[in-house]
Amino acid sequence: MFRHTNTNHIRLMVVGEPGVGKSALIVKYLTGRFISEYQSDFDWKYSYQTNIDGEQVHMEIIDSLTIDDSHIRWAEGFMMVYDVTNPDSLLKVEQIKQRLDTVRSTKILTMIMVANKTDLEHCRTVAREQADAMAVRLSCGHVDCSACGPETNVRFAFDELCREVALARQHSAKKR
């Protein structure tokens, strides 16, 4: 899938309300470790090489404190994270999507919704069906995971977003 793109370099932006676990998900993906306490006072950009579907992929991932227009224009794929114990964080995803649409009005928007903190199922206040319905409305995938649990679903979410970016590139190239 990645072979048919001009480059295996993919730019991702992880967005969501403060406290949903954006940084924890990124660190889990990059290192396999969980950070329980994390306070970010500024944006971070990570550079990472990985293998997806047998192809070497170079990623740049922005962990953004703010949703800056220049970052939105820079990114090719967006991971919209919400906390399953915080219904307001799910509503924030819809607001973020509207902002992304406004800033990137003429570009294809590639994104995935990620439910974080699924290890706190006993505290869950966001129904899976409610989030699934939003993912359908927003025309994006939806993955449940936990930054403090096994890294399988965290890895799947990032890898799947990269696959979607590669597919969007192919689709865009065919239109030209």
Defining traits:
176 residues; nucleotide-binding; Small_GTPase; 39% helix; alpha/beta; Rossmann fold; GTP binding; small monomeric GTPase; G protein activity
Map the helices and strands.
Blueprint: E1 9-15, H1 22-31, E2 44-52, E3 55-63, H2 69-74, E4 77-83, H3 87-103, E5 110-116, H4 128-138, E6 141-144, H5 152-175
Parallel strand pairs: 1-3, 1-4, 4-5, 5-6
Antiparallel strand pairs: 2-3
Structural summary, described in words:
Belongs to the small GTPase superfamily. Ras family. It catalyses: GTP + H2O = GDP + phosphate + H(+). A hairpin with a 2-residue loop joins strand 2 (44-52) and strand 3 (55-63). This protein has 176 residues and is of the alpha/beta class. It has a 6-stranded mixed sheet, sandwiched between helices. It has a single domain, classed as Rossmann fold. The chain is built from 5 helices and 6 strands, in the order E-H-E-E-H-E-H-E-H-E-H. The chain is 39% helix and 24% strand. The model has no long low-confidence stretch (mean pLDDT 90).
